[in-house]
Amino acid sequence: MSQELSHDFVQLNSQISSLIVRLSPAPEIVYWGKAILDLTSESEILAIIDRAVSQARLDVDVPVTLCPEIGRGSFGSSGLEGHHQGNNWAPVFQYTSHTLNGERLTIECKDELAKLSITIDLQLDSQSGVLSKSISLRNHNKADYQLEKLALTIPIPYRAKEVMSFSGRWSREFQSQRHNIEHGAFTQENRRGRTSHEYFPGCIVGNKAFTHQTGEVWAFHLGWSGNHHWRVEAKSDGRRFVQTGELLMSGEVSLKHGESYTSPTLYSSYSCSGLNGLRAENHRFVRQNILQLDQDKPRPVHLNTWEGIYFEHDPDYICQMASEAAQMGVERFIIDDGWFKGRNNDKAALGDWVLDTAKYPKGLNPVIEHVNQLGMEFGIWVEPEMVNPDSDLFRAHPEWVLSTPRYPLTTGRNQLVLNLQIPECFEYLYHCLDDLLSQHNIAYVKWDMNRELLQPSHKRKAAVRGQTLAFYRLVDKLRGAHPKVEIESCSSGGGRMDYEVLKRTHRFWSSDCNDALERQTIQQNMSLFFPPEVLGTHIGPAHSHTTRRQHSINLRGVTALFGHMGVELDPVKESEQERKAFAKYIQLHKQHRELLHSGHSFVLDSCDKTRNAYGVYDDTQLLLAICQKAMPDYSLPEPVLLDMLDEDALYQLILLELPEHGEGIMKHYPNWIEQLRSNEEVRVHGSVLKQIGLSLPIQDPETCLLIYFVKCES
Ligand code: DGJ
């Protein structure tokens, strides 16, 4: 679908969007939006895009190129910053050549004076519409080039007036904010050495007041697990752009003659149907291009021991927990932190990856065998990049700590970071993990990372990049040796969630906050970039460990359904009634798992901001959850209009979950619910549900309704 429009323009097309690139004098995106399939001549494009030159500025037109250059007259934020010992600080790149290979356009540019070249790689996935972009810089100069920044820049249209960004903290990931894009920039910088809770490397721009279901929107995500910077700017001439990249520390990258640096990949998507369109494209792209899941294997339901027993590991008791878990329908049992030598709290033992034989005198295998005999897979927690000062490893190798010599070592969660760029340290960790996986039937590893990098130096130079790449290498090497083992990316919850880590892992631990009310927002925002099957969603204890709030099983169960489901508590201590309820939700999840993990996720716009209406659908069915987060804004709920249904089909309505209610805020239910409660069938035409909508009951705060619509055979 891609085509050379002329010697100077290339157009890439997907089912949803088109990208038109002008190649010279320097590569520039002239269009990135709704698919245009009939633009074919250079003169047509040139006639319409040629810009005026304003008074009192440079006498030439200055494009916002794919790597804006201060030397060309782009007075905004440069795509490249660096120098050869102070020289060549403002290079100007000229297009030299390009190749178009299917969906992929590669453009070469050079500055002959500075002896630097850049290669820009653009790929528009024709199926999902996701555009991937990366950029490389090569130094052809005899002098070393100190690289300070090589950013990815994408222009956005004037009508992109708002940016939605995502910030957070431990136990409160992915909170969204909106900012106007006008006269200046919205910026964000992450220097924490991991993807971070604080600033997700992604944003969405769109027209004023875009919503889940309406508006033109563009999403951007940088696939990188280290430091990053973001900028969304309206220039003084009104043109605007998104710019992002790896945030390099001083002196972090120095290129010798012939060496090159390649940026992380920027993923962008476009939708003219609001955020739901972006969800659809991003999910499709991740499913087809990022994830390495066995498509034929359903995602097993988890039980994770963390909030159940913390560091108190007793194998007999754990076996009892496993037996209860199996009864409830759990398919994978994971022992969390606390299994290795001396790990009785979070103050000691990280780095000493041998079993605590005081806790497990007969080894781990009897527990694993018990779990396997119950028909479940076994998983285990590790945190390989870390070391406690109180550990045999630290006592033997204090020099393996990632730090800057002679500066104080500051601990975080009582731990320090190991320098994975030291080959002996890397090999030590690899062998610990390899031995663990070789000696036990372990199907799943929860790979945690619980602190930021402070003063991260290798050979006295800044080393966030080196550490990030070494982390990838360690995971890759382990996966190479144990390809069947699945890995969860966890970093105090959702502190390391991005597409680059997802290429080598299988799901995320979304948040340490299992409070279902908080999870409603966290999961909904995560779902803009990640499909539900990679988001760990667990039913936690009724009394949330992080917020101290108390929630019914209705809210906890329905909230955990829409992800990779699990349970995180001690089933032995739970009441028979609660255990039955866990079993019910697990069963419900399994029943709808295929739809949940392959269908189209959506969120409905509501005039009442206290409710979340969301679901998943495919050609024959739709699952809808309505979560009433707080006291409703209005006394009658807005009917739901399901515009994704087939208007010619008849749908049967099945009420999967009707929350309890007292006399409080509702006298009686809408008619269709009364009919279902008296075991009458309710069938409604798609066109009616699409245009008139379904009346809803008035829900008490902190409750969920769950409705299933299934197409009737005609
Ligand atoms: C932080 C994780 O997010 C938790 O789920 C748990 O694994 C603890 N670490 C264990 O130390």
Automatic annotation (TrEMBL):
The active site is at D448, D512. CDD domains: GH36. It catalyses: Hydrolysis of terminal, non-reducing alpha-D-galactose residues in alpha-D-galactosides, including galactose oligosaccharides, galactomannans and galactolipids. Residues 27-255 form the Glycosyl hydrolase family 36 N-terminal domain. SUPFAM superfamilies: (Trans)glycosidases. PANTHER family: ALPHA-GALACTOSIDASE C-RELATED (PTHR43053:SF3), GLYCOSIDASE FAMILY 31 (PTHR43053). InterPro entries: Aldolase_TIM, Alpga-gal_N_sf, Alpha-glycosidase_related, GH, Glyco_hydro_27/36_CS, Glyco_hydro_36, Glyco_hydro_36_N. Its EC number is 3.2.1.22. This is Alpha-galactosidase. It comes from the Bacteria. Keywords: Glycosidase, Hydrolase. Belongs to the glycosyl hydrolase. One of its GO terms (molecular function) is alpha-galactosidase activity. It comes from Vibrio comitans NBRC 102076. Substrate binds at W170, D336, D337, R413, K446, W447, D448, M449, N450, C490, D512. GO terms for biological process: carbohydrate catabolic process.
